[in-house]
Amino acid sequence: MSIVKRVEKKVENLLTEGDYDLVAVEYVKEGSERVLRVLIENKEGELDLDDCARLSHRLSDWLDEEDFISESYILEISSPGVERPLRGRDDFQRFSGESVYIKTYAPIRGEKEFTGKLLGLEKDLVRLELAEDEVVELPFKSIAAARLNLDI
Question: How far is CA 63 from CA 6, 12, 15, 108, in A?
Fold first, then answer.
């Protein structure tokens, strides 16, 4: 099991005790350092600093005990921020009506990047209004990355 999957599973177990949801776990290289980033939020999309600290201590203790990451890393627990990533199908329904940025694995209609108003998810198609009366439907499985977008 990958580092991200193991941490996701543990964080989801830890969060069942509170009112928070896991948004994403990332294990990335930034400059010369590795960062294990855990993004969480409550149902209102907010995050309390005390809750971040509490989860950080519990997760850090578990990571030290399990010791399955061989290289040094920085553990970050934070809110997903205003440009929150959209991960699962529920996010594409929950944030319907919001401005989003979507990148696809392969070109669709000659493009791989789309910015517009999210109209939701119908069947396996993410509906996106690019301009007034111009709607594109993107297969859910074709989406490489998606996030809320403040640029509009």
Answer: 10, 14, 16, 41
Spans of all domains in the chain: 3-78, 89-148
Residue 19: is its pLDDT beyond 80?
no
Class of domain 3-78: alpha beta
- The answer on pLDDT for 60 being more than 70 is yes
Please give the model's pTM, rounded to 2 decimal places.
0.75
What's the rounded Cα separation, in Å, for the pair 31 and 84?
A: 22
What integer pLDDT is reported at residue 13 of this predicted model? Answer: 84
Alpha-carbon distance values, 55 to 14, 51, 76 (Å):
8, 6, 10
Query: Phi/psi of residue 6, each to 5°?
Result: -65, -45
Which structure tokens are listed for 93? 């329904």
pLDDT attached to residue 93? 92
CB 82 within 8 A of CB 152: no
Tens-digit pLDDT profile for residues 104-127: 999 999 999 999 999 999 989 999
CATH superfamily entry for domain 89-148: Ribosome maturation factor RimP, C-terminal domain (2.30.30.180)
The answer to whether 84 touches 118, Cβ cutoff 8 Å, is no
Spatial CA neighbour of 3 closest among 53, 73, 90: 73
